[in-house]
Amino acid sequence: MRDQDQTAIQEVLQTECEWVEAHRWLDIAAIDRLMGDDYTIIQRDGTVVGKEKALASYKSQKRSWETANSDDYSVRIYGDTAIVMGRWTAKGTNAGEAFDYSARFMAVYVKRGESWQIVADQSTPIAQA
Fold this sequence. Notes:
Elements: H1 3-24, H2 28-34, E1 35-42, E2 48-50, H3 51-59, E3 63-78, E4 81-94, E5 97-112, E6 115-125
Parallel strand pairs: 1-6
Antiparallel strand pairs: 1-2, 3-4, 4-5, 5-6
């Protein structure tokens, strides 16, 4: 693996950690900064949501996290694009209902200038044993 790819992997994983921390603390400004303007998420029910609607769901203050973590990463670099696969775990409340969630996720990051931004995100719940 080229040194450039190793550097890019470290930068992307640092951005992924910032993404998780922004969720944990519901830091709307950080979430907004880390999302590309063309951000799209495919939700667990198959709904496709863009950045504006995703941000609105955070701003509603109906969601809070006790824990939020990601790990078990696999990162592939394709020039200024990175595909991150990993595991996401979170516990908290959403619209008054408790959740304890584990999922495998795939996120697409694009390097813009000196920063990486998430532009697409999808997760699949891990079935509870």
